[in-house]
Design a protein that fits this description.
The protein has 340 residues and is an alpha+beta fold. It is built from ten helices and seven strands. It has three domains: 134 residues, Four Helix Bundle (Hemerythrin (Met), subunit A) (Up-down Bundle); 46 residues; 128 residues, Heat Shock Protein 90 (2-Layer Sandwich), CATH 3.30.565. InterPro entries: HATPase_C_sf, HATPase_dom, His_kinase_dom, HisK_dim/P_dom, HisK_dim/P_sf, HisKA_4TM, Sensor_HK_Regulatory, Sig_transdc_His_kin-like_C.
């Protein structure tokens, strides 16, 4: 989605309030009665429309996602439409009863304004409630995931370390201590990556334009990629959390290094970007499994690198897909990415 479209979403509620204000003010401006009488009739709808504008300005300037504001806009629009239809139905009933005086414009606009403001406030409440529910569900899923890791993934290297420690005591052979050290290193990596998985599952707030070229090269410099070459073929800037997107690239580069290959390519797509390598690739039947924590085909892999990547993408509301690169390796593509 383009930056213009995101801005339009963020200010949609303010635009709705501005439209209501323009309609109410036009009736006041062109009214044929005395100025004071017109002011009394249209003061309430004008005030309500200004409250809707104020709500929209708050939503546009606060740290809310564009999707959250769009939801509030739909609630506000629905409230205004429902109340407008109600006013129209009352007018129809008056007409059926033989009354000539239908609902005046000021009453209709007041009804629509009440509906728009009330719907917007309900939308804010509903959005926050749903976000809180999603956060609680995410926390529950993380607890289940961590329980699985502790009961299975950490237990395996612990058993290996205990077994070799007993053998070392019995035989005195120092090679068993190397196996114990390797098992401890693996446990340390598991703990570090589980903590990273937890942190990167949070929502993102510090969004700013980030150059893919610069951030990819920064991430490459911190990952051990022996005899591998990085090729960045784009200078696109995307709206993201700089710290999170750097972690995303680090995990993708580390995953490429673990599975072999000589070249990693970073390039842009129509609505996002991708990272591809020339390694063995990922079989089609495993392309969904690779995002599950603990799944790995590398002997020394922890299986959490791509799970962290998925969490970071979800925190940004990006869609992620695994496919095949031009050289037959793995290609991880991100879409729905806002850019400049």
């Amino acid at each position: 989605m383009s930056r213009y479209a995101v801005s339009l979403e963020r200010w949609s509620v303010a635009g709705l309030g501005g439209g209501l204000f323009a309609v109410s003010a036009s009736y006041f401006a062109v009214g044929g009665e005395l100025l004071s009488a017109e002011f009394v009739r249209f003061a309430v709808p004008i005030a309500l429309s200004l409250f809707v504008v104020a709500l929209g300005v708050w939503l546009g300037t606060a740290e809310f996602r564009a999707g959250f504001v769009s939801g509030v806009f739909l609630w506000s629009l629905a409230g205004g439409v429902v109340m407008g239809l109600l006013a129209g139905w009352i007018s129809v009933l008056q007409s059926v009863e033989g009354r000539r005086v239908l609902q005046p414009a000021s009453v209709v606009l007041t009804t629509v304004g009440v509906g728009a403001l009330g719907g917007g406030l309900l939308g804010v409440y509903h959005g926050r409630l749903r976000r809180r529910t999603d956060e609680l569900a995410e926390q529950r899923n993380r607890l289940d995931e961590f329980a699985s890791i502790v009961s299975h993934d950490l237990r395996n290297p612990m058993n290996v370390a205990q077994g070799h420690l007993e053998l070392a005591r019995e035989t005195g052979d120092e090679k068993h201590f190397e196996a114990v050290e390797s098992a401890h290193d693996r446990m340390e990596r598991l703990v570090d990556e589980v903590l990273a998985l937890s942190r990167h599952g949070e929502t993102v707030d510090d969004l700013s334009p980030v150059g893919l070229d610069a951030i990819a090269r920064d991430a490459w410099s911190t990952v051990e990629t022996p005899e591998m070459d990085l090729r960045v073929r784009t200078d696109r800037r995307v709206v993201s959390d700089r710290r999170r997107i750097r972690a995303l690239f680090e995990n993708l580069f580390r995953n490429a290094a673990e599975h072999g290959g000589e070249t990693v390519v970073v390039d842009a797509t129509e609505d996002g970007f991708f990272v591809a390598d020339d390694g063995p690739g990922i079989p089609p039947e495993d392309r969904e499994l690779v995002f599950e924590g603990g799944y790995s085909t590398a002997p020394d892999g922890t299986g959490f690198g791509l799970a962290i990547v998925r969490r970071i993408a979800e925190a940004h509301d990006w869609q992620i897909r695994v496919g095949e690169s031009e050289s037959g390796g793995a290609r991880v593509e991100f879409s729905g990415v806002a850019g400049e």
